[in-house]
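Re: that chain you flagged

S.,

Sorry for the slow reply, it's been a week of failed gels. I finally had a moment to sit down with the sequence you sent. For the record, here it is as I used it:
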Amino acid sequence: MTTQAQTGRSPYSFSTLNLITAFFMVAFHILAIAALFFFSWTNFFVALALHWLAVGFGISLGYHRLHTHRGYKTSTAFEYFLAVCGTLTLEGGPIFWVATHRLHHQHSDKDGDPHTPREGGFWAHAGWILFGDTHHNNTLVMARYAPDLAADGFYRWLNQFHYIPLTLSGFILLAIGGWSMVLWGLFLRVVVGLHATWLVNSATHMWGSRRFATRDDSRNSWWVALLTFGEGWHNNHHAHPVSARHGLVWYEFDISWITLKLLNAVGLVRDLKVAKVPARVPQEEAA
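Prediction finished late last night. Pasting the structure tokens below so you have them in one place:
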């Protein structure tokens, strides 16, 4: 069993639980389960489309590859659009998300990493959200690690009121398809998206293969990549964090990279940064 002395944090207890976060997490999970009793193909495809918009565009293309690592360039309008899509995941505003991820890279699997599995798999997956420091709306604190975004008034506003786009989407779904569509397009979709992206924090630092000898525990995981539009090629990413391409060989399916190539072809994005690796890509080592 992991001890406080080993982790440097307090053991799980009700006194350290973020009550508001826990309330919404429990409520969303309950309503996600309820959605399964109201299946329809319309609800399914609406949820799937919104999942791609929120996680594929908002998290993978936006919060991660653009806002955090600046792996490509685009117009201000499209950058703002991606940030709004990111808020549809219930993962906080852009300044909070970017600051947290930059801290992860700075201290990956060491003291200061917000969600390393070295403090337990549950901690890396969801414990850090439920029991860790809660700075979702603390723009002043998180701005220290994302000063580029904090200098922009739109990002400061969106970080403070990140729940507004998600709430509005719920009302739109209600007007279009009733409560069953809300259950699928909001609650079930958000819960699936949360666990998919949390797997990048937990699973890809515990299981998978390693192509590069990085100074952390990052792994490549094909099944996490499938769930997260290419984010599961995590060892590749930690070795080349600025690269907009995470899947470095043909069989590493990276749908976000394919999307970026298409967007580049029509002129919506430009200056794609790609990892320069040898023509003979290093073989992965099983871990």
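What I noticed first: Strands lie at 73-74, 209-210, 269-270, 285-286.

Talk soon,
D.
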